[in-house]
Amino acid sequence: MERFDFNFAPYDFLNAHERAKLQNTVDIGYYDDETVIIEADEPVAFLYVVIKGLVREVTLDGEILSLYDAKDTFESRALVEGQTPHRFIVQEQALLYTIPKETITELMESNPRFGAYFYASLADKLSNIAQTQDAQQFESLFAAKIRDAYRQNATWLNGSDSILQAAQTMKANKTKSILVRHDNQIGLFTESAFRDIVIAGADNQEPIHRWSQFNLISIDIEDYVFHALLRMTQFKIQRVVVTENGHPIGALEQIDVLAYFSNHTHLVAQRLDRAQNIDELVDIANQMTRSIQILNSNGMRAPQLAELMQVLNTSLFEKAWRLLAPPKLYDNACLIVMGSEGRGEQILKTDQDNALILKDDVDEALAKTACGAFSETLSRLGFPPCQGGIMVNNPAWRQPISQFKTTLHTWCVNPTGDSLMNLAIFVDAKAVAGDESLLDEAKAQIKRSLTDDVGMLGQFAQAVELFDHQNSGFFAQLLNRNSSSQMDIKKMGVFPVVHGIRALSLQAQLSETNTFERISRLSQANVLDAQLAKDLSQALAYLMDVRLKAGLHAQAIASPLSNNHNQVDMSALTTLERDLLKEALHVVKRFKAMIRQHFHLGNL
């Protein structure tokens, strides 16, 4: 009997005794094309694991719900519930492990983690595997290099320069240490030296070499960050000198290391605060992209990364707008971002979605010039122009508040396709610069215009079905081995959740824009069932994780799809990732059914 492969989830959760129990009872079955392995509504006696071949899961009317490839498991829920409403049919000659129900039941009872993988909700399942992920994330921290944490902002002085010059330089450069050249040596003058200087009553014109340390502890830029921490601990120091090819290039502070391991993005925020021109912002924007890669590799999940990037992007946009807009325009307008950027759910840079709300007496010519420069600047920062023209350089998205309110009212009472799309974009708006009361006034207009308009809200919600034809046909498409295995995860998963929640939030007149916060509020208001809300949040978080991974991979290989972060290669997913993706899509399907019922979409 061939040994069972325990090297994938959830079988790698089993201990040695449990593995032996499974190995002693597992069998292997061969199934020819079109063989019905599990019939709908009949008792299920085995759990099946695909060794090779392909099995499709279909409804009684023939809709393909899922496909099972090598290392995929089915039908675990049927073992718990006794039967399944679906049929499992061999698509391509299949070799399967067959594990008796009694064995699986015993293993579920003895190993809760193993059992949770099969019959827990998606939320509980993701929580259950978090322990393993945390261990992997902890290990990844020790792979970080000095180059990743080091800030290239070294400040140099000569040993003959005065203490006063050193103090002025440190204040101007916002640094706690200065590298010192003196008598063919390299030394370090730090802020702690001032304590000794004050105690000694030294004159502020004394040369700094007298108060500098020349017996330096150094580390190469290609060494590991944890080695730097070890040296700081060993020598009871707060910084080490960083060298490259044997030459000192700067200092790595203890706070830099701690910031890198906790959330090194605050270093980016500091640079944004000090930036003086657009060229500096371009460099910072590139650093932000590198930060995403580092934080993701260290285990930070997509929703948390999205929150961080919203904060940083807001600062980036505000700084760019402040550099470009005259004070008279800045103070009398509100710059807003919309769509995923407004919701705080965007990580990698995508098309610009922004607008400018003006006070009624602002000079339009002044606004036009500044907005044109802003749109061009965002392109330089890595945010490509919106193909639909939803940008401040478009007069339709740059209006005085009175005109904006009229436009918003028109969108609400005349729900054409374009109006509904524009409204969906705008309700996620977030202010990033200027007078935020203008955005508050605009959103108040939406609430007035939508009062008790059930029909309009139904039309608004109907967009959740926009890509249903792609969803239902995707697994059928995969059966064609010559077809692409690319899934548009935004259309199939993210968009239905985001828009369905947006419709419910609009109806409930919530002020939140973030989808996770909206889900929480809707659950508290009993608009959403608590379990569905929990599953929905976890499903969306996982879909965002998969989307981010695909986007980072596309960027790394300079793929033609690198500007489309929504395309996920199903064949590149691990067994665990594919299984969780199927679970997430089933949650999305449940939610869409709830939206159809809530808004009576079948009657529209």
Automatic annotation (TrEMBL):
Q: Which domain of life is it from?
A: Bacteria
Kindly indicate whether the keyword Repeat belongs to this entry.
no
GO MF terms held by the record: [protein-PII] uridylyltransferase activity
Pfam (any one): DUF294_C
Keyword list (alphabetical) reads: CBS domain
The yes or no answer to whether the keyword Transcription regulation is present is no
Domain Cyclic nucleotide-binding, which positions? 10-125
Its name, as the record gives it, is: Cyclic nucleotide-binding domain-containing protein
Species name = Formosimonas limnophila
